[in-house]
Write a structure and sequence with these properties.
Helix content of chain A: 40-55%
Oligomer: homodimer
Strand content of chain A: 5-15%
Largest sheet of chain A: 6 strands, mixed
Number of strands of chain A: 15
Structural class of chain A: alpha/beta
Number of helices of chain A: 18
Strand order of the largest sheet of chain A: 1-6-5-2-3-4
Radius of gyration of chain A: 29 Å
């Protein structure tokens, strides 16, 4: 069996692992690393940091994981960094409510929760997990001073958020200047070949590149991910536009949700957003995705089928193929039953002269839902008729004046205004 | 015997120890501390830092020591901080040639040299010496992060030199922001009541005040010294004006210099500078100095006598009272001998007809240095005549044509142009 490291050319690997990425520093160096890895059959070390304060992941967090997965598929090794050292310090100023200090127990527990979640996507065999307290708990104040000496204040103030806060006169504590250095130094300790992160992490990732250069190491390649838009994002002026996926906005898919929930939520997105999600989250190759896209474009594939395939893939990832299939089937059943045509005809029907009620079967026939009262009776006894969403079992049912939604069979709907 | 802590009132102590100071933060708190010390007979802890890279002191460095001495005279305790921790790190960027890292041996050797020098002024019984490596060598990176969290970037950038460098686009390394915090934290560890420093240290000293407050300690009083002007400073428009005392400018008095050198150099300063030096360097009380000043003003004291008294005091400080007296006597002797009137008369004297030389005695008589050749002979045999600065012993000496400076007795000088 060929090593997975030889299964795809460096160019093919490049194509897949950079799919949908935002920043790449530096392409030529990355190609060199991929070529050397290919020639020597030596896996690259792909670093990704994890902040152990937020162990409950949604699909937005998995953009990173799916990219790591693509690296693993080519035989490379993922090295997960749990930033427990700084997490345990938290924000010593106490100003940031989002960075409460964690105890060692919390960090370990969060890391375990995290691992349980990421191994639904990643291959544990090709994944190492390390904790930066391993080196920082041994670091002295002197070591940190020497590290701090390697970076200028002015450069740190170029980081977008620091620049903004400084300009606006909002306080930045000096320790905040140390954290990017620690994050960068992690890369030195891990001898990372590539580091992945969100595009908001670009600055910090580049600090790692610089520190590695200064240490005489080959600088890591920096590859950043877009922030995933939420389920409610839409194409506006040719661009996917919408708030990022987040729990507080409710536009998310939690990876701990049921297969039914995952499938159903993903079926609700627009076709445009579907292609974006395909790029960032699917294990399908770029070629497969392109073929699917072409199929939808020439009408040979229904967009709904493409979306269902995606929703099944993601549901299967976090549960099982069977669970995903069951979710799809259940979705179809419920969806078909519940799906009301967007335009339902309304008919006004008058009660027979001197009567205060009218039989359901007569109403159905009068409204055209059945050719006759006897066909209407047959439909009711077959269980194919529902009134205001509830199945009707009694063919002798009478209706008083009012509004009713009657469904006969799968596709026939009628709104009745009985007067 | 009364405790020295009760020998002067808090107000009197305040008057003496703040003499000639630049900044005082905060007067009311300082008075409180002095009062409590007086009432409870508890000495205050006076902190002063010493950078162990520069062990060879001149009088400029001793402004601090003389102020500490005044505190000791009132019974307070001096706590000297040797900043060996940061000295051993130096400037890790290697950019600053003035902060090369020192080895532990160098630091210890410098500290010993320093102690030998400061104990010429201070009372070793009331002086403690501590090394900040004692606490910082045990500090972890985490401890330093927590310390760094307590100070904002913007405030640090208010320090004059940082502000200037930042504005001019010159690099500041992040570790430089940590050093003032370490210096401030020293005060916390030492529980300093008062910290002294040069006026350029004000910012750092105030950081110490803040950190102490945050730790729930009574904040230290900050008292800064002016930078001592060099020997060549003068009164210009009512202010002492001139470069600071420094070795490289040559306008200094090294405290390791001989009593003769110290005395002689101090006798060269202007009267105005003398009063400045009195204020900053003399052990005399403010009242004594005021009396001396009044004496000079009403003509009862010759300014030269006041200057000699000061020069003797300083020479005695670094040597002994006897050495200072000897230096004063030698200075008088040499000065009297060597002091040439600013205007010396020049006389042209012609050789006797047909002669190529002329006898010294005849020249002296011809020039009016003696009433006759025989008086000239007596002066020569008494050893009272010098030619071009060298004593003449041979009365039969002949002079060839040329220029000569002849001195007869203490006060008679004549330039001779013999043709």
């Amino acid at each position: 069996m060929t090593s997975p490291l030889r299964a795809a050319t460096p160019e093919e690997q490049f194509q897949e692992v950079t799919r949908g990425a935002v920043d790449l520093h530096v392409k030529s160096e990355f190609m060199e690393k991929l070529k050397r890895s290919y020639e020597t059959e030596t896996p690259l070390v792909i670093k990704a940091g994890f902040d152990p304060t937020a162990p409950d992941l949604h699909l937005g967090h998995t953009v990173l994981l799916f990219r790591l997965k693509r690296f693993q598929d080519f035989g490379h090794k993922v090295s997960f960094l749990i930033g427990d050292f700084t997490a345990m310090i938290g924000d010593p100023t106490g100003k940031s409510a989002t960075r409460p200090p964690l105890s060692r127990e919390q960090v370990v527990a969060n890391a375990e929760t995290y691992k349980a979640q990421v191994f639904k996507i990643l291959d544990p065999e090709k994944t190492a997990v390390c904790f930066n307290s391993e080196w920082y708990s041994k670091m002295s104040a002197e070591g940190l001073i020497r590290l701090a000496a390697r970076y200028p204040v002015a450069r740190m103030l170029e980081r977008d958020d620091f620049k903004k806060r400084f300009k606006e006169g909002r306080s930045i504590s000096i320790h905040e200047f140390l954290y990017p250095l620690l994050q960068g130094y992690d890369s030195v300790m891990m001898k990372a070949d590539v580091e992945l992160g969100g595009k908001d992490q670009l600055f910090n990732l580049l600090v790692g590149r610089e520190l590695m250069k200064e240490e005489g190491l080959a600088p890591q390649i920096v590859l950043t991910n877009p922030i995933l838009e939420g389920l409610d994002a839409k194409l506006v002026d040719g661009e996917i536009t919408g708030a990022k996926m987040s729990k507080s906005l409710g536009n998310y898919v939690g990876i701990a949700e049921s297969a039914d929930q995952i499938f159903g939520k993903l079926m609700s997105i627009t076709d445009d957003l579907m292609w974006r999600y395909y790029d960032l989250l699917s294990a399908k190759s770029s070629a497969e995705i392109a073929a699917l896209k072409a199929g939808v474009a020439d009408g040979s594939v229904h967009p709904r089928a493409a979306k269902a395939a995606f929703a099944r893939e993601i549901a299967a990832r976090f549960h099982s193929a069977e669970a995903a299939e069951a979710a799809a089937a259940e979705f179809d059943r419920v969806h078909a039953q519940r799906a009301l045509p967007t335009e339902i005809e309304t008919r006004e029907i008058h009660l027979p002269e001197g009567k205060s009620e009218m039989g359901l079967l007569s109403v159905m026939a009068a409204g055209g839902l059945s050719a006759s009262n006897s066909e209407a009776r047959r439909l009711v006894t077959q269980g194919a008729v529902s009134l205001n969403g509830s199945k009707v079992s009694n063919p002798a049912m009478n209706l008083s004046p009012g509004e009713y939604l009657i469904q006969a069979g799968k596709r026939k709907f009628l709104k009745i205004h009985l007067t």
